[in-house]
Amino acid sequence: MKKIFYSAATLALLSSPVLSQNLIPNGDFETWDLYNTWTLEPEFWNTSNGQIIASVNPDSSSYQAELAMKVNVLPGFEGGVPQSASIFFALENNPEMISFAVKSFIDGDSEMDEVNVKVQFYLADAQIGDTLIWRTNLSIPQWELIEMEIPDLSFEADECLITVTAGRTNGFFGGSWNNWISVDAFEFSGTQSIDTNNCNSSIYPNPSQGNSIQIMDCGQAFTGIVAVYNVQGQLLLNENISSGNFHSALSPALYILSFVSQSGAAIKAPLLIIE
Asked: What are the residue ranges spanned by the domains of the chain?
């Protein structure tokens, strides 16, 4: 029985591709750069093992068009670092779904070996939301088109990281050198709706040096309780402020500042503390 695992997602098989809304660079893998005689990698993709050992190869049996990308565990890397390729790119809006075509081969202990695809979203270089993971520990001999629902993000992400890995479930071992995963036709679809601030509430300066921060609400200095969370959602501060003045002793990082507006709306805004 095939085992397909997923995290924070609804996973389904589709009969036809969805329309793309945000561009995933080289999602179809038709463009390739030949860097040297040792390796052939898709344009824009980076691999964890550098340019000398070819853990990333073209797959001529693609889902659509000419080529797909194939990531495999290399001879000599069994029990070593999982082989992976990743791409980091800008976003214009938060997508609702991601789809991609996949096939795989697992040769070894099916309880340990796996291949996976990870999707992560970032705002100001800090991850927001959970890592979205699709993984399998058994072979998929024919192309399957996968769709995953992206959990709602509290803020507009400005970048996305996609990582494709041939490895093991514990994340530290490379597994059998015969293991591989091919991916093709990455697409985003839909647009998440982010709650708008209908009262023009604001915080400034933002970014801040972490000293006095002014919070304006409906054109007036905010008075009330302000909560501050890290990007993992942990409550760090919960203070009652007056005249809009919030004094922060937070370390440099991205935080989420939350308060209830005069309009009754719950306002959440990113707050970046810098050196």
From this structure: 4-189, 202-273
**Secondary-structure class of domain 4-189 per CATH:** mainly beta
Beta-bridged to residue 41, according to DSSP, are 33
Nearest to 248 by CA among 269, 219, 226: 226
The pLDDT assigned to 153 comes to 83
| Cβ contact 254:124 at 8 Å | yes
Amino acid at 244: G
Query: Torsions phi, psi of 105, nearest 5?
Result: -140, 125
Domains 4-189 and 202-273 agree in fold: no
pTM score, two decimals? 0.72
Interatomic CA distance for residues 133 and 120, integer angstroms: 9
Contact 83, 55 (CB under 8 A): yes
Side-chain-facing half-sphere of 241: CA atoms under 13 Å: 24
Give tens-digit pLDDT for 116-138. Answer: 999 999 887 778 888 999 999 88
CA atoms of 159 and 117, how far apart (whole Å) = 17
Per-residue pLDDT tens over the stretch 130-171: 899 999 988 999 999 999 999 988 777 889 999 998 876 555
Distance, CA of 140 to CA of 233 (rounded, Å) = 36
What is the CATH code for 202-273? 2.60.40
